[in-house]
User: What shape does this take?
Amino acid sequence: MAAMSLRKHLGYGLWTGAIALLAASSASAQISLSSTVGLALQNSTSVKLAAVDVQRAVASLAETKDAYIPNFVVGANPGPPSIGYPLGEPSIFTVQSQSLVYSYSQPDYMRAARAAVKSAQLKLKDDKDQVALDCSVAYIQLNTDLRQLTSLDQEKADADALVSIEQQRLAAGVDSRMDLTRAEITSAQIDIKRLHTQDDAAEQRQKLSHLTGLPPASFIPDPKSIPPAPDFASGGSLTDQTVDSNAGIQAAYANAKSKLELYFGDKKQNYRPLFAFGAEYSRFASFENYSTYYKNFSNNNFGAAVQITFPLFDATRRAKARESAAIAQHAQIEANQARYQTIEQVGSLRHNLAELKARQHLAQLQVDLAQEQLQAVQSELANGSGSLVSTPVTPKDEELAAIQAQERQQDALSAGMSLISAELSLMRSIGTIQDWINLSIK
Assistant: This one.
């Protein structure tokens, strides 16, 4: 049985070497975390929609400014000669120009448009942060799944060796049929866990494919491209950093400011004069009979004026102002709500980090203990215990210790994934996740 165990471990060594050679040959196909996130930001529909919203907001701001720029309109109204008294204007062509001279509301509308641009830009950054979070979590989860699959392959080899050993011990009358069944159950459980991990890895590849537009099979994570997480335990409170750096909160408050400025503008539409400029040139047709009825008829006609409008009473505008006030209040409440929820989320995540770090530390200690127990069994199997009282170890004990070591390794990987997911969510909330991703480039 010792020879069989040696052959099994030698075979695993060859298998591991083959995997290492395959990984080395495909190292050029690895894609870094920063490159994956960059592709996701370029391909994301939510980011594209947010970018279009920025363009629309910029155009709206230009519209409020362009109200002061005179427009020019050219038209024509030629017609057959009239019979009797002329009924219309005999213009061959007309050139008109109009512009806003001054409005008490327009400065407010311009400030509202500027705030809307700022809100759209911040919303774009917030959407980019969300895409970066989704992409990073999927990337690191895929890397974790692949590492777990490597561990499961080794555990499966150990479990199959244990089944073979139990079959030999059962044939020799050393162990019972129940021991063989337990070994077979362990092997079947590893198969199920491996299938589940493979499905999760395929799901993460598909998610990354949807985010980046690349084929799912092209994703081979590069563990070295994953930056270390920042130490959130050091430093002061994250509350101020959340309010100052979270693009979603800032976008909400910028939107609330925009709605408030719109209300100010709509409110000033009542009881305040409006000044507008207008000019017109018309070239009248000579074939009309206007000269018969008008003593000083001229073909060239020009006029310019400043129009002043006093809205003394307009129920529609007053209702519009009340509507704008309600919309502004609603936007302010939404912004406050987003702020409170994000601050609460940051507090919860930060408190959970301590527990998750403790779990990861415990998992790593269990890995170390399992490895030490495996080494102790292997050492005793090779050299003997040196004791006449204790029961000597067997290859069965070695396989059991090896299986236990791989299980603890997988538990440590799962604990590490839970920790990095919480850390990424915290960085997303305080608006620093893209700065963290850029660390891998430096």
Q: What stands out?
A: The beta strands are 71-75, 91-103, 274-284, 300-309. The chain has a mean pLDDT of 86. The longest helix spans residues 315-383. The radius of gyration is 38 Å.
